Amino acid sequence: xxxxxxxxxxxMLEASPxxxxxxxxxxxxxxVNREFEKVFGYSPNRIIGKSLECIIPNRFRPTHSxxxxxxxxxxxxxxxxxxxxxxxxxxNGEEFPIQIRSSVMxxxxxxxxxLVVTDLLERMSLPRKELTVQQRYEMSVIRSSDGIWxxxxxxxxxxxxxxxxxxNLGYQHMEIEPTWSAFKSLLHPEDCRLVLDSxxxxxxxxxxxxxxxxxxxxxxxxRWFRIKGRANRNEDGKPTRLLGTASDIDxxxxxxxxxxxxxxxxxxxxRLASIGEIVAxxxxxxxxxxxxxxxxxxxxxxxxxxxDLHSVxxxxxxxxxxxxxxxxxxxxxxxxxxxPVLESQPRDLxxxxxxxxxxxxxxxxxxSVSVRLHAYRDIPFVTLDNQGISDALLNLIGNAIDAxxxxxxxxxxxxxxxxxxxxxxxxxxxxxxxxxxESIKETIYQPFFSSKxxxxxxxxxxxxxxxxxxxxxxxxxxxxxxxxxFRVTLPVHPENGIAEEDPRLRSSQKIFTPLS
Length: 516
Prior knowledge:
There is one protein chain. The chain is α+β, with helices and mostly antiparallel strands. The protein has 4 domains: 1-135, PAS domain (Beta-Lactamase, 2-Layer Sandwich); 144-248, PAS domain (Beta-Lactamase, 2-Layer Sandwich), CATH 3.30.450.20; 260-337, Helix Hairpins (Orthogonal Bundle); 344-514, Heat Shock Protein 90 (2-Layer Sandwich), CATH 3.30.565. It is built from 15 helices and 18 strands. It is elongated, with a radius of gyration of 43 Å.
């Protein structure tokens, strides 16, 4: 009866539609079925009694004995155990991807491993509809350009890495032992902490596991990978298994880094060019001022020799004006380049504007320009630096007076009004001059640029803009032939400002104040 059962079992194995291999504890092949010959190309007579190494590629042979012992020790006699994706070797020397499921058979003769082998290349040729969900997943692993890693028990060292995972790192499949320690050893030292922290947050707090890091390649140093993963959790929410991908993004990442380096290089080049332009502009302007001062000094020397006090006084006035220009220019350069310490206090903006217009009155009278102030009632105090805002407005109003000076009825209008939506106050300076040419609108805020050749340092507008921005405000302009408007917006701090329901806004009226 035992012989009959044995013969029956062999016939059943022989007739099985799957590829079967039975090996003993020494790794010697004891049985193969007919399907084996179709897949590997060996007849039973040629392979039985030979080592399992005959159907394993050379690079995987050093570890096959250990793997076989693991199968014999851990595989259940009731199921086919864990799936292993490996490579097989046909009789003609061709390597091909295989899937192995294992079980163990124990008898009086010894312990045997039963290996169920699936030719994945053959499966890949099957129509998709003929594949099970599990088979489709296995095919996606084989075909995927991403490396797949499976930490099937997060409390143990062992992991599984797909062939593509090894390939992307330049290793042969199973060339290194896939363990958590091996995974960590492949990480770039600068990225290791990032990976560990992200993993800890995912396992403990269930935050998304997605990051970019460098991993050590066998061939070309470190390569960039995008790591994604997701944990399986038990009923208590405790992570039990972690499955993820490692996508090779080295080309994209290197391109991004090179692009950023190029951007930084160009920015540095532009910065150095700007410094060169600033130095050239400063030098040119100082030379012009010094030229006038030197000329005045020569006139004074000659007049003193001739005892011409009238010429001395005249030249001295010119010398005094040019020295003042030089001092003012130095202050403008300093205010443009340094980070100021603002002495900000709640101040009466209307009074500040009135004072600035008063300072400009002599210049406006000489140039026959009328300056008018339009202010809404009860403009709230604004927290600002008095000197900085005064200098900025002095530049804007002074420029407007210069622009309007060529008109028969030159006029500058300064308007101060609250802006409810922005919770701010606007100072609007409008002149009826010729307007700013379209060709220079993009450059008026550049240092040392001026449309008034030889008459301006070209620092007034850049300085005004910097002061406004230092106050967290805004400055903008619009210009057309016959009209130019600059608008400065300064925020009103809540403690000094106006509430949205403040009746002062609803009852505001314009005050017309001619100052010249």
